[in-house]
Amino acid sequence: MTELARSSGVQLHLSSLPGGRLGREAYEFVDWLAAAGQAWWQLLPLGPPDRYRSPYKARSAFAAWPGFLGEPRAAVSAAEIASFREREGFWVEDWERFAGRGAIADQVRFEREWAALREYGAARGVRILGDVAIYVAPGSADHRAHPELFQTGYVAGAPPDAYSDTGQLWGNPLYDWPALRRRRYRWWVERLRRTLELFDVARIDHFRGLVSYWAVPEGERTAVHGHWKRGPGRALFDALVRGLGGLPFVAEDLGVITPAVERLRDELGLPGMLVLQFGFGPDNPDGPHRLENHVENRIVYTGTHDHDTARGWYESLDDVSRAAVERACAERGVGDPEPWWRLIRLAFGAPAKVAMIQAQDVLGLGSEARMNQPGRAARAWRWRMEPGALTPALARRLRELTEATGRLS
Q1: Which of 209, 288, 325, 396 has its CA 20 to 30 A from that of 116?
Q2: Phi and psi dihedrals of 138, rounded to 5?
Q3: pLDDT score of 106
């Protein structure tokens, strides 16, 4: 079970910092978060991204990307490498074979820089909310080292829905869950053990895929001809509790969510997710994302990295949906002049334990600053914040809102 105090935070991936890496600007962002009264910095997965820069198709489910290093040429001793090999023995040799000479030294450098940043943040009341991509990338270090843990003949995807007539063809290898069960889910236990070395809490991407997942025959050009297959369900999490002692995770439960998915999430006590952008359409008045239906054990987002910015979304609304937003603001006494700040205020005033906003929304940026658009590889994952964009004035404004809505630690 994940216990969260009423609080708030900002999502900004390391690649979106002005320099795109660790170092001075990462520390400056922590300082800004602390000044703004924010308890959380949410990141995307830290693994080496693919050629489109997607962190959700990383070349390793365990290794961090050396491209994030602030000091890539810092000295590393033989003793540090030996210690890292001993502590991370489950995966590090697989990664070294895949990535080549110097791979372990880079991981030591990352561990050193990352630990220092986390300690700096913790001293200022800022914790790290990370992300676990459910699947590994095809041909990744994990896929090559453990072919016995993956299916052949099918790849991952998502079925057709209101957003896509052909579904989403992700192409990731699918887990052979019976094979993992026979091995007591050790690969997953070790993977999430590594995750919790990096983050205080982590979001499990595509949580519903652990109950049932969409399997698409290999070679298909769309996801239309896929079918649902059963996932591991509770058995995986029982193994995680035995191996890790707890479940400091958040369930990414967006999309077509069945009662079985909701039941597993609630039995485990995992917070789910709510997205304001889903809550103002004329359809589905009983939907969980509508403000009047929000519940406490959730993280509420104006939008995630897969959605438009708050400004871009608002400016794209039809008259009916825009009127619904303004009605919700009027009912709750929200009158900020900028529509994106009205949306931030709605999120912060909601019942959810944690309110999370994108840095782009604090800055009032439009669709040009969108991080990702699912199904489109080109031009995704490239947004980078301008130096000095997050000003002291913005920190004061966000802190005042955080205090007014009872989210200030």
Answers
A1: 396
A2: -65, 135
A3: 98
283 among known catalytic residues? no
Average pLDDT over residues 48-66: 94
- Candidate list 111, 190, 252, 253, residue with the active-site label: 252
Got the DSSP string for 58-117? -S-SSPPPGGG-S-TT----HHHHHHHHHHTTTTHHHHHHHH-TTHHHHHHHHHHHHHHH
Number of domains present in the structure of the chain: 1
Q: Are 393 and 383 in contact (CB under 8 A)?
A: no
End-to-end CA distance of the chain: 21
User: Is 367 within the bounds of a domain?
Assistant: yes
Q: Name the catalytic one among 94, 142, 205, 253.
A: 205
The yes-or-no answer on residue 165 being catalytic is: no
Distance CA 56, CA 18 (A): 21
Which two structure tokens, joined as six digits, stand for 260? Answer: 């079985």
Is 380 within the bounds of a domain?
yes
Going by pLDDT thresholds of 50, 70 and 90, the confidence category of residue 281 is confident
Q: State the pLDDT confidence band at 164, using cuts at 50, 70 and 90.
A: confident
Strands 40-42 and 7-11: parallel
The mean pLDDT of the chain is 95
Q: Please state, in angstroms and rounded to a whole number, the distance separating the CA atoms of residues 198 and 389.
A: 27
CA distance 372 to 375: 9
CA-to-CA distance for 274 and 343, rounded, in angstroms? 13
Q: Environment class of residue 257 by beta-carbon count within 10 Å: exposed (0-12), middle (13-18) or buried (19+)?
A: middle
| Side-chain-facing half-sphere of 274: CA atoms under 13 Å | 27
Q: With contact defined as beta carbons under 8 Å apart, do 76 and 109 qualify?
A: yes
Q: Amino acid identity, residue 382? A: R
Q: Which of 28, 80, 200, 306 is catalytic?
A: 306
2: left (phi over 0), alpha (psi -120 to 50) or beta: beta
pLDDT for the residue numbered 373: 83
Residue where the block lists tokens 């980078």:
384
Tens digits of residue pLDDT in 389-406: 999 999 999 999 999 999
- The answer to whether position 374 is within a domain reads yes
Residue 252 among the catalytic residues: yes
Q: What residues make up the domain containing 388?
A: 7-30+272-277+298-409
Q: Give the mean pLDDT of 76-86.
A: 97
- At CA 29, angle to CA 27 and CA 32, rounded to 5? 115
Inside any domain, residue 102: no
